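Example 326.
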Amino acid sequence: MQTNFRGRDFIGDLDFSKEEVETVLDVAWDLKRKRALGQPHALLDNKTLAMLFFFTSTRTRGSFESGMAQLGGHAAFIDSETTQISHGDTAKEIGEIFGRYFDGIAIRQCDWQFGNGYINDVAKASRVPILNMQCDVYHPFQCLADLMTIQEKKGRDLKRKKVVVSWAYAASYSKPISVPQSLILQMTRFGCDVVLAHPPEFKLMPEIVQQAKDNAKKYGTGFDITDNMDEAFKDADVVYPKSWGPMLTTTGKEEGKALIEKYKSWITDERRMDLTKDDSIYMHCLPADRGLEVTDGVIDGPHSVVYDEAENRLHAQKAVMALTMS
Ligand code: CP
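Predicted structure in complex with phosphoric acid mono(formamide)ester:
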């Protein structure tokens, strides 16, 4: 067990080693048990967290805010639009100033080819831990909760479990590629045989795909890429189909929408779930485009673990905050 977390940032999934992620999950399960038993766990008494959002959120905001309160501290919701960021406060100024007011700074900034750089610029100027609530490259806290959920449902040893990270059709908007990128990075370190499925125009960042390949080699896991959703779903233990935008092909809004519209058949329905193992689980970070990405029958059905998955955001985040901010 590794215990050297105090003062550290968590921006990319690989910022914590595999052994450190195991510590995080160990603490997360302890905190989950304590909450279920009603045992107080004020590990961050009098500590404060700034939650700076450039994008909307339901789960991330709710779980960080509630998590800080449960740890005995306080989280301040800060909407970039209503701060002087909109009038010129720089990343350096935010890091310097919020680093003096707060004990941690959590940021969601998903703008393509900007968000991750912004978070790192704040981190360079900050004296307190920076926590990535989602950027254009990573969604590391979502992925910790996902790993925790898979281990709860499939056991701690995930050796040879087939985990499918698939693109899915959605009409609403071009969603970030951070969730699938975090998943292929983290799951290849934890025994899973990962299959990434997407239409040709929906590739992930080549350097992230290379890191996933390197992980698979290092940890003796599988990592395959296909453009056939049915093929990917065959005999899967875990399916994680979600929409993302064609950023690596085009950043044009109309062109991107036209590409998305080509693949309406990429829906997770009962027929596709029948291709998976009988005890497979269906995961989604939410929000989902119901009726487009997934049928109601699947997301509300017996394979779905989306509510347990959303709950685990709370426990995983509390673990990282307690470890880095205490
Ligand atoms: N999964 C997730 O990050 O949800 P929100 O966008 O609602 O925070």
